[in-house]
Specification:
The chain has 13 helices and 15 strands. With 433 residues, it is an alpha/beta fold. The strands form 4 sheets. Strands 10-11-12-9-8-3-4-5-13 form a 9-stranded mixed sheet, with helices on both faces. Strands 1-2 form a two-stranded antiparallel ribbon. It has a two-stranded antiparallel ribbon with strand order 6-7. Strand 4 and strand 5 form a beta hairpin. The radius of gyration is 26 Å and the shape is elongated.
Length: 433
Amino acid sequence: DVLGMAGPDSSIAGMMPCTVIRPGDMADQILDGDRHPDWHGRRSKMVMAWPANEKLWVEYASLRAAGLRRDDRGAGATEFYRKNRAAMDAGARVSWEARFPPECLSAIQNAMNLKLRDEAAFFAEYQNEPLTEQREEEVMTAEDIAGKLNRRAHGTIPTSCGKLVAYVDVHKRLLYYVVMALEPNFTGYIVDYGAHPDQKRHHFAYRTARRTLLTAHRGKGEEAAIYAGLEALTAEKLGAAWPRDDGAQMRINLCVIDSGYQKDTVELFCRQSRFAPICLAAKGLPVSAANIPLEERPRKKGEEIGDGWRVTGAQGEHSVRLALIDTNHWKSFLHARLAVGMGDAGCLSLWGKSEIHHRMLAEHWTAEGRTPTEGRGRKLNEWRLPAHKPDNHLFDCAVGCLAGASMLGVRLLGEAVPRAKRVKARKTKARYF
């Protein structure tokens, strides 16, 4: 249309700066000389030829990842590159020799850093040659989740599990909770969940709950009722001995408690409870693709950092440590675990033989929709509730259990979901470990 504006007796020139994001998109089609020969398309690339010595660059990548975990901003890897630059540059050719930031020594080092950060984004944004995308797995339906049963008795734990984690989601009317047992490789078992006060039924909605914190703890105000509810719930769950198949009895290793609602009350409880050594206040943060990941933000004194979480240091005489949890990361991680087949490492399953029993849990876990997003060289799914805001509280609880397990040292052997490189937590004497 624009090119036709010149009229029939004259011509007009057109130039289209564009980036190929996906194979077959509009930019990719215009750059195809066979399909659009009138456009003299040229694809610019940051890297015209790659370095020949892959072994040294693999070692560089390992050093850089380890250095970033130590907050050295890649200085150790840069020094390694400085010493081996001639060998590492051999065979490489870039389109713009002067294009690199102050922390890099050359354009090829900058290009390799960008590629290490997010390979798919690098090839699309900087090479104009996007990688062939793999079809994203669909989110499991509520019916599929409710049917993922391990046929175990309620509240029992397999011998292979070494960690038992609980998460409590705090609301004005109810406290929701999930208890999860985990093997060292993130194979997980939901052993218990529900709400306090107990609703005496398998399926209920938050807004129509018959028994609430205020009715169960009569004569108390909202904050006191929540505090009393936490005392009663933790006494029941944290004070219990959970039977394992080998005859041993396990106790909950870590109880993470949401502090997004009534922060002061939750922190007071975590400080004063008789279970204080294993209670940890938490706040969920939906870190978007445009945000800096939690593990890449500057470390403050006393903080512990892990994959999609960080635990702040206690500041002041009466403060408690606070876990910040990247909910977008761990919600994607949860659904990745659900997609793993029964019997495979990293699978998450539910107790019992009845799908009907778990219908409410499955509805909570599928209440939110996910949207693929890109930003800052990263790709991830952002999770949001639809406009009618269905209950999702047990989803938050399960997500918090997985994050808590990571804090206890549980690790997935292999890649789970697309994610920036994990930052390991420093060794600490934190009481909940």
